[in-house]
Fold this protein.
Amino acid sequence: MAELEDALALGTRDRIYRAIAKNPGLHFRELQRRTNLATGSLQYHLDYLTKRNLVRSVKQGKFVRYYSARGEQLGEDETLMNLLRQESLRKIVLFLLTKKSATNLSISSAVELSPSTVSWHLSKLVSNGIVGTRKRLRKKYFYLISPEKTMALLRVYKKSFLDDIVDHFVEIWESMES
């Protein structure tokens, strides 16, 4: 515990660590926006925190996402959190939370993205085990595999998304359960 206190004695490092602990899965630029630090300074302190096993980084495509190595761990939900950090994917997931299943065209219309873009995002969600597919007649329907787990993650971290859509969705969902 003294190691943690020593590493976080500097206000800048403490601010970075707290931002990561409260908002798991942030990528570098979003962390930079939230901490208001210069690129070099943020990179230096992230390297320091990583070398002391306080923060861990996970490469996802072209992004590196950061997680607290000491705080609450997401475990298997980490992949879902990484995907929810992407706005277009988050919109698709939120839409699927409101429906039992939907076609690419209905999702495309609801989230205001082209069908080809939605198809690309859906393939990413399917390959990561977040969304499943079923065929009915000649149409392919998409559905969330674990809507309860997805909703639980959105509830716990709703403030970390800085997204009014998530806030309103969670509020409506919670009012329906009461």
User: Anything to note?
Assistant: The CA atoms of residues 2 and 8 lie 10 Å apart.
